Amino acid sequence: MNSVNFTVGVTGGRAVVNVNEQMDVVDVQRMLSFEPEQIEDLLRTHSGNQAYWEALSVRLRTRYETFRDTWVRKWWAHHNRYGRVISSVYGESKPTKEATQDLVIQIFSQDVAVASRDRYAFQAWGYEVKKSMSVGTQDEYAAQMFKYLNSNQPWYFETIVESQKTLLEEYDMVRIAAERLNSKAFDMGLYTKLQMAKRGNVGPQ
User: Fold this and answer.
1) Model confidence pLDDT, tens digit, residues 128-153
2) What is the DSSP string of 176-192?
């Protein structure tokens, strides 16, 4: 692993970290194994290789946690509001969190018919108008209600779940490789010590 894949600098008192996220396909099983004749070369390069994979793991963890703690929370906060409104339309003024989320899934899933969404939007708009809420016209209300679905890349319920799961999977896979590299370092160190001990036990020929 080339050292330019992971660099650290400090500018204005802040760390500037660059982790190269472009790499050729790596045979992880081969990377995590070693042959005795490779030991000398691996001992020179293993630490840098391990540091890169650990840094990449941290970067992917940050990306996953940022998505989870910002975009996923914002998605649910937006749609839960309308889930609660629809619950009120149906006569449930204080729905449980689980009931609200079930309604969100029913309204904002990919397989929901457009006519069904239009009906939900009309019901929610009518309810809020009766409550003297300033919600604009019916079309304006519907556009706000379905703003995550009306973009060029619609964010349905399934989209948000699959995206979060994919980011978590990517992080976990790289984390596993980074952890196994640590084990490889231990194994190589143990092998080296055993070889040195064997040589120490060999008497004069």
Assistant:
1) 999 877 789 999 999 999 999 998 89
2) HHHHHHHHHHHHHHHHH
